[in-house]
Specification:
alpha/beta; Rossmann fold; L-fucose Isomerase, Chain A, domain 3; 5-stranded parallel sheet; 23 strands; manganese ion binding; EC 5.3.1.25; Fuc/Ara_isomerase_C; Fucose_isomerase_N2
Amino acid sequence: MAVSRLIGSYPVIGIRPVIDGRRGYLKVRESLEDQTMNMAKAAAELFQSNICYSNGDPVNVVIADTTIGGVGEAAACADKFRRAGVDITLTVTPCWCYGAETMDMDTKTIKGVWGLNGTERPGAVYLASVLATHAQKGLPAFGIYGQDVQDADETGIPEDVKEKLLRFGRAAVAVATMRGKSYLQIGSICMGIGGSIIDPSFIEEYLGMRVESVDEVEIIRRMTEGIYDKEEFDKALAWTKKNCVIGFDKNPEAVQKSQEETEKDWEFVVKMMCIIKDLMNGNPNLDKGFEEESLGHNAIAAGFQGQRQWTDFYPNGDFAEAMLNSSFDWNGAREPYILATENDVLNGIGMLFLKLLTNRAQIFADVRTYWSEAAVKRVTDYNLEGRSKEAGGFLHLINSGAACLDASGKAVDKSGNRMIKPWFEVTEEDQKQIMEATTWNQADFGYFRGGGFSSRFLTDCEMPVTMIRLNLVKGLGPSLQIAEGYTVHLPEEVSDVLWKRTDYTWPCTWFTPIITGQGAFASAYDLMNNWGANHGAISYGHVGADLITLCSILRIPVSLHNVPEEKIFRPAAWNAFGMDKEGQDYRACQTYGPLYK
């Protein structure tokens, strides 16, 4: 659908149809050939129809040339998959097979096994056997087995099997897409925030990525020496002047900027956005003599330090961050970038996980304030209703402009439902409504002495969302927190009063979690009290189950979540690490260690 911005091919899924290799008078193998290969074809069709890469193209799936009844055919399949660039394998079978002879032995592939729940041949017996062999050899694999018995001539995939296949596929494609790419930090540590202290070992060993670093002065060098795409800059500036609605200036009149100074700041921040794009992914249109700069850093995600050395002197990065994180710009709808404000790499990686799973623009926000039912009543005389009342309150998600503009919730589906769409479904009308709902206000000079602009909008609708935080803990390593919930729609006058108690020029989202009545999800307050850092990454939809699967592939334990237990899907070997699901996760991740150690 769109040309990839990154160097390196997208991951490929390989389907391995394994079979009982016995022939002879009763023709055991021959009787199973069609059924086995049809399972492979059905799985391939399911993947290609429902999973796409971040550029919008359907996932590439290859199938072994023959069914696999023994080690010779397994080797032939492995050779084909190496040449095809397969990163993920799904082994399928309706029958008993010789596990250790037919299994995927490649230590670098992400593995799943689907054994048919049937009565004619013991597919479930093979599944149990080969999963045990995977565990014995230290090669974790996801086991997929349907609840209901299927007839031998059935060609469809049961719904519960589809759910597991797609969860495995989405998570595995996301994991494999990150491999070999870069996180680019522009600047370094911001205001002593731990999340912006880069840990290269974590990024290399757990994600298979590398860290690239440039000083913020590189942006100034490129501006000064004209190392940017002049044609794109002119187009971007014209679009910005036409489409960006100017908001109020909250600063005292004595320090407000003149019209001339404001115009120069707009040119600065637009040029800054163009340059950050080039730093991340290169630009072949740079002038001759700048071949080195035209290559970029192959960054699948990046972060901009900003505060304070930059923002005390230059216009802030809010325009670049907000627009790059959104699903469109002057070229129309396009794949969102991931650019973390304050160079919070941990939040940026969280945003990256969510983007790769959903293909949607992501929200970067402070998890700033817990508003209890009593506090809202005291300040506004409003009684909470619906989900926020059930949770005993809500959280205020707000930051200085880095949230994607899509978070205004102005995009609508065919039924008129408000949402954040996959980027390739965003229409021109969606873009128009989003831009009209957003104002660009002069930066708060108390925070940003150098000026600049902050995007300002209100998420004034209820949408299902998932908020996550990736944390690093000394002695433990990485862990992930997941909170599924909803954005909260408040009456305008109530929202206004609460919003004005913090920075009224920043994008505002009210969020409440789904309450389970236990632990961190006993109430919205308990979630706030257990959250691991000052930031959160927020995505449209309830995707916690996919995140749990993704983290198990990477060996990152999940420390907090409100995902129903029946949706939790991890490799079968996790069952050997105890009876409690979360304890299993910690022990298994510790035993297997980082995916790329």
